[in-house]
């Protein structure tokens, strides 16, 4: 529990400078993510985004679908995301939500997107159970997550851990896919792309 509290404080503390940090360090990664994800979306979809941060995927993808609800467990991250949306007068709903205890009715969404979050949750299995519940039958889960295949920026990870960041699961891409598959999802595709700190495994799954 101490690590979970510390992790939340970390995200609250970095919220103010999270957007410029991502734009400087991970612009290429998020561009590639958006290219992959956009091909999976259509104009009739209702999408739930979990762990949206300050909107790195949200702002690029929300126009591709009928409805996009963006959520994060960090109040500060959501405040920053809302402020960014106001600047550009964008009609996006941002709310604070716990991915392991969602308020939505069963089968509400066509697609759930959860990026770079499952590995830093103490109970990702609970989040996956909730995702299954709120997805329609045959619904789509898009779950990019940092993995420990290949090149790892150990120095940057060490520095982040020194100020409160904690990773609960250090999966390799095949281990990550197995974890998700064992929670009742069917893996359609698994794509690994390079990242500045860690490689990224994009899992595309159906219920």
Stretches where pLDDT is under 50 for at least 5 consecutive residues are none
CA radius of gyration is 16 Å
DSSP strand content: 15-25%
CATH level 3 topology? Rossmann fold
CATH class: Alpha Beta
Strand order of the largest sheet: 3-2-1-4-5-7-6
Instruction: Determine the N-to-C terminus distance.
Output: 30 Å
- Per DSSP E runs of 2 or more residues, the count of β-strands stands at 7
The overall average pLDDT, rounded, is: 90
CATH superfamily, by name, is Vaccinia Virus protein VP39
What does this structure look like?
With about 210 residues, the protein is α/β, with parallel strands linked by helices. It has a single domain (about 1-205), classed as 3-Layer(aba) Sandwich (Rossmann fold). It contains seven helices and seven strands, in the order ααβαβαββαβααββ. It has helices spanning about 1-25, 25-40, 60, 75-85, 125-135, 155-160, 175-180; strands at about 45-50, 65-70, 95, 110-115, 135-145, 185-195, 200-205. It has a seven-stranded mixed β-sheet, with helices on both faces. Strand 1 (about 45-50), helix 3 and strand 2 (about 65-70) form a beta-alpha-beta unit. Helix 1 (about 1-25) runs parallel beside helix 4. The model has no long low-confidence stretch (mean pLDDT about 90). It comes from Clostridium drakei. This is SAM-dependent methyltransferase.
List keywords for this structure.
207 residues; alpha/beta; Rossmann fold; 7-stranded mixed beta sheet; 7 helices; globular
SSE diagram, text form:
Blueprint: H1 2-25, H2 27-38, E1 46-50, H3 58-61, E2 67-72, H4 75-87, E3 93-96, E4 109-114, H5 124-134, E5 135-146, H6 154-162, H7 173-181, E6 186-193, E7 200-206
Parallel strand pairs: 1-2, 1-4, 2-3, 4-5
Antiparallel strand pairs: 5-7, 6-7
